[in-house]
Structures are given as C-alpha cells and as structure tokens.
C-alpha cells in the first residue's frame, strides 16, 4: 500500500524511543526499547548511538546500563529527533524534486509543499514532555 507520508524505521525508533526515555526516570535498555518498538536490538542500538553522538541522550554499559535523556523533555521536539536521523526535512513543493515542471502548472499545485510544512510544523510543536503528560 502506498502512503503519502512515510517514516523510516530509524526515525520511528528514534521518536518512539525518546518518548520511552522521557516517560522513565532511570536508564532504559536497548532490549526494552526494541521490545516496545517491535524492532531489532541492533537497529535500536545503532539509532541511539546517533542520538548519543548528537547529545540528546547518554549511555552506560553493563547489566543496569542503557540510555537516559541528557536534555529536559521540554527542550526536545520531535523535529529535532527526526532531523537527527533523517537530515533536514525538505519542504520543497515537487515530490520529484525537479527544478522545472514539464507542464505550465504543477499538477500538485502547492499541496505537497503545504503538507510538508504542516508535517514539519507539527513535529516542531510537539516536545517530548507532551507525551509524558497524563492526557496522552
């Protein structure tokens, strides 16, 4: 089935995993994040090493080790996490990224660009703390 907006597994692991960390007080293991996300431990470890490198989380080894937020949940939004994994979110209007449309008018008009901007704005408006609150 085709989708208009699709997240890579890595972006999904990062976003969901960071929410898991925000909801927990202590360290969270790779295994726990992998189990909740239904992902491989290896892929979770790889994604989270990127988040460590970018300064969002800390990691510790050993039987009681795992990952822990390094920044307050109020200071991290989903866009930051997404762009750490995927790179800057493009709001270019052409889904084919062509500089010139072969028609006089783009067949998508501005709809693709509007959707990309709405998606970016949504991710930017949601901090991790939003998902820790009781209403979620």
Describe the structure.
With 136 residues, this protein is mostly helical. The protein has a domain of 84 residues: Winged helix-like DNA-binding domain superfamily/Winged helix DNA-binding domain (Arc Repressor Mutant, subunit A), CATH 1.10.10. Helices cover 44% and strands 6% of the residues. The chain contains 5 helices and 2 strands, in the order H-H-H-E-E-H-H. Strands 1-2 form a two-stranded antiparallel sheet. The longest helix has 15 residues. It is elongated.
Q: Mind telling me the CATH superfamily name of one domain?
A: Winged helix-like DNA-binding domain superfamily/Winged helix DNA-binding domain
By DSSP, the count of extended strands is: 2
Alpha carbon gap, first and last residue: 29 Å
* Helix and strand sequence: HHHEEHH
Structural category is: mainly alpha
What form results from the Cα inertia axes? elongated
CATH fold name of one domain, please? Arc Repressor Mutant, subunit A
Quote the beta fraction.
5-15%
- CATH first level of one domain: Mainly Alpha
Q: What is the C-alpha radius of gyration, as a whole number of Å?
A: 17 Å
Mean pLDDT: 89
Q: What is the correct CATH architecture of one domain? A: Orthogonal Bundle
Largest sheet features: 2 strands, antiparallel
Question: What helical percentage do the residues reach?
Answer: 40-55%
Count helical runs: 5
Provide the fold topology:
Layout: H1 9-23, H2 30-37, H3 41-53, E1 57-60, E2 66-69, H4 78-86, H5 111-125
Antiparallel strand pairs: 1-2
Helix pairs in contact: 1-3, 1-4, 2-3, 4-5
């Amino acid at each position: 089935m085709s989708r208009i907006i699709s997240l890579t597994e890595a972006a999904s692991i990062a976003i969901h995993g960071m929410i898991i960390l925000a909801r927990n007080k202590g360290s969270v293991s790779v295994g726990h994040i992998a189990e909740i996300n239904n992902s491989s431990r290896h892929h979770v470890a790889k994604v989270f090493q990127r988040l460590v490198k970018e300064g969002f989380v800390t990691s510790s080894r050993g039987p009681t080790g795992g990952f822990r937020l390094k920044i307050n949940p109020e200071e991290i939004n989903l866009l930051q996490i997404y762009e750490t994994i995927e790179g800057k979110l493009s709001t270019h209007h052409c889904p084919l990224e062509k500089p010139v449309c072969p028609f006089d008018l783009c067949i998508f008009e501005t709809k693709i660009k509007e959707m990309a901007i709405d998606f970016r704005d949504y991710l930017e408006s949601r901090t991790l703390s939003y998902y820790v609150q009781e209403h979620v």
